[in-house]
Amino acid sequence: MLWPTFLAPVVFLAYICVARASITVYGLNGQAQQQTHANGQPDASATSSAINSAFTSIPAYNNVVLQAPPVPTNLTTQFDVPVQSSSQGVAALSIELKPGFYGFSVEFSVVNQVVGINSTFLNVQFLNLMSIITQRAGSVVIRVGGNSQETATLVDSLANGKSIEKDKTNSTGPTETPTLLFTPEILYMLANVSALLPVKWYLGIPFNDTTNLRLGIAEAGEAILGNHLLGFQVGNEPDWYANHKNRPLNYSQEDYFGEFGVVVQAIANDNKITVRNNLIGPSVSTGPWTPESVFNTGFVSAYDSALGALSVEHYPTDNCAAAFPDGGFGPPKDPQTVFPEYLTHQSGLGIVAPYLNSTNYAQQVGKPFLMFETNTASCGGFPGISDSFGAALWAADYGMTMAVANFSAALLHVGGQDDTYNPFTPPPTNMSDFDQWTIGPVFYSAVILAEAFGTSGTAQINGQLSRLALFNYVTDPSGASTIAASISFDGTTPSQVMVKYLLAPSVAEKVNITWAGQTLSGVFQSDGRFRGTESISTVQCDQSSGTCTIEVPAPGFALVFLSSAALAETEPSSTVTFSTSTVTGKHTATVNPTVLATSNGHSGADRARLDSTSRGSSGAASRAELLPGLCTAFLAAFSALLLLGVHTRT
Ligand SMILES: *[C@@H]1O[C@H](CO)[C@@H](O)[C@H](O)[C@H]1NC(C)=O
Ligand SMILES: *[C@@H]1O[C@H](CO)[C@@H](O)[C@H](O)[C@H]1NC(C)=O
Ligand SMILES: *[C@@H]1O[C@H](CO)[C@@H](O)[C@H](O)[C@H]1NC(C)=O
Ligand SMILES: *[C@@H]1O[C@H](CO)[C@@H](O)[C@H](O)[C@H]1NC(C)=O
Ligand SMILES: *[C@@H]1O[C@H](CO)[C@@H](O)[C@H](O)[C@H]1NC(C)=O
Ligand SMILES: *[C@@H]1O[C@H](CO)[C@@H](O)[C@H](O)[C@H]1NC(C)=O
Ligand SMILES: *[C@@H]1O[C@H](CO)[C@@H](O)[C@H](O)[C@H]1NC(C)=O
Ligand SMILES: *[C@@H]1O[C@H](CO)[C@@H](O)[C@H](O)[C@H]1NC(C)=O
Ligand SMILES: *[C@@H]1O[C@H](CO)[C@@H](O)[C@H](O)[C@H]1NC(C)=O
Ligand SMILES: *[C@@H]1O[C@H](CO)[C@@H](O)[C@H](O)[C@H]1NC(C)=O
């Protein structure tokens, strides 16, 4: 099975908080949320970012700053939020949450820019970024794949000691996917990352030609990565194959079913592949096929023993017309017009709605359901949206909404220089000796989900509310649209609660973004470590009224920890960082794993684990008991307030 047994899905209770008059309660199948963000008014708070103008023609470093939508009329800013501290008797059930929830999907063709050059040259910035997540979530999942996996072929060696080589001459389709050759170095490189940090990997079996299968990645991947390997995707977005001219125009779900079977059989006949239950499919991507149309071929019953998880991929919209002006996509979409569609809880609800039957089905057949690749928009995303603070709020909301909808994990895609949505972007290759990385706003969303969901990955019925998440999508520098949520409890009112804020001056902001006072932002400026002093707000609760009033600036996000134990669970004590001075004097340093492994007398992996638990020396016992569950309480009012509660075991 894909998930270790200690993470096996446990059904637990979540609840819908029924609020007073000023709040509308939205269930996942419920009412459409009121759209309040009209477009148009200039926004005084939109700040321009100082981006090296020499690079602004590269999408990843574009300097497009949009206008924040105007403040909605008659915005409600005062909310009474009664919360039920116990999940007992609560209506909506949800599966347990995997720690972290958000992982990353790295396009195969850029893995040697993102992760490192080879097994002895790992990117320090990448390690630091992954350390941020693993410190909070305990582990992180990364898929190396995408369109470029389909033609990737493992070879023994390449000229000039290269570990990966692209051939763009045979690129096909609107995604202009290069064919790839790679050597085992790439797999050793991933293994060496996992030797330093608790990182687990998904790979893909090339599927462009099942009459000429190339299983080298599975044979070598299993041998080199061992139990750091979670599984293999079989077919990336097969519903687009006909359209992308990778298959005949009549390519059908039955054809995919048949080809999947070819791979299952070939693996069964391959004695170099011993793990035979870790395949991932069908990975349809909102093309002409629904997941059900594949399931209805008998896919899961036919391949039950081979399937580790069911998967889909999804981008809520695309920017293909701008990316490929002659591609027959029609007129380009105007990012300013599209922006408000991301600044509402309705976006996440709309995305998950078509998958609710599938996540339910996945539970029935006992498989995790994965969002294997996602981000703001396909074909590179929208400059000014995908790299804005608004996208950070959106991705945090969307991730929580997927979790409520019983997805088991979601992977944010990293596509490289041509994409605006990357959670992190290494500098162009010719600059990587001088420049640092550029961290995208959606990386903060992954950090937030890691902290919101905690580390244990199990949950139980009589949980106790431990964390609340509050969103304010409105931009209003006057302060008049700051939300005040008065949280009241049916049980004991805590004396105080702790709050971490995600803040920026505007939803259009690209650079000045902070999480609990710390930042990763700045074009070409990040070594993957948070800068600045962490600041956690303490809010005193009013015992006479039994309320704790939490303010959320416009725009902003607040993660409210209802106990110090809840905070301690995800609060890194001393983050394992990989200093750029470790090995060389250059900004971008090679990491010599043996140096790191022997420092402080612990291996990197051991240190990571020690650090994430050492905080609990006062709370080691409570850590074991802090088993976060999931609350399905989404309170949304005029697009401004969204509330999610996370339960932990008492
Ligand atoms: C805003 O409130 C005022 C006063 O209550 C009311 O007259 C007006 O119709 C409301 N506007 C909207 C758009 O709801
Ligand atoms: C999630 O799964 C639980 C447990 O099966 C179920 O009760 C709940 O209704 C599901 N949630 C959604 C939104 O489908
Ligand atoms: C890895 O890449 C670095 C930098 O290009 C090079 O110096 C080193 O020899 C390579 N190592 C291997 C094992 O190929
Ligand atoms: C599949 O990809 C391989 C490697 O790039 C290539 O050699 C082969 O011609 C491709 N097959 C088809 C049918 O496109
Ligand atoms: C590219 O396509 C040409 C013509 O179909 C073929 O001869 C060549 O082998 C292909 N190259 C790769 C790397 O697939
Ligand atoms: C890194 O990879 C190389 C293979 O290129 C291997 O010899 C070395 O032991 C690995 N280091 C770690 C820490 O796994
Ligand atoms: C699909 O089209 C191919 C030619 O492109 C043809 O050989 C095949 O018979 C067709 N299959 C079906 C089921 O119509
Ligand atoms: C839900 O999915 C199952 C499995 O694909 C399918 O048989 C069923 O018809 C679907 N139900 C709805 C309402 O779409
Ligand atoms: C790297 O490439 C970019 C774009 O072609 C160019 O503007 C820049 O000057 C190059 N930098 C170096 C150090 O060669
Ligand atoms: C950055 O944003 C914060 C609000 O999040 C604001 O208080 C601060 O002045 C901004 N700093 C700059 C340099 O714009």
TrEMBL record:
InterPro entries: GH, GH79_Enzymes, GlcAase_C, Glyco_hydro_b. The chain crosses the membrane at residues 626-646. One of its GO terms (molecular function) is hydrolase activity. It comes from the Eukaryota. Residues 595-618 are annotated as: Disordered. Keywords: Hydrolase, Membrane, Signal, Transmembrane, Transmembrane helix. The keyword Hydrolase applies. The keyword Transmembrane helix applies. Residues 462-559 form the Beta-glucuronidase C-terminal domain. Residues 1-21 form the signal peptide. Pfam families: Glyco_hydro_79C (PF16862). PANTHER family: BETA-GLUCURONIDASE, BETA-GLUCURONIDASE C-TERMINAL DOMAIN-CONTAINING PROTEIN. This is Glycoside hydrolase family 79 protein. It comes from Phlebiopsis gigantea (strain 11061_1 CR5-6) (White-rot fungus).
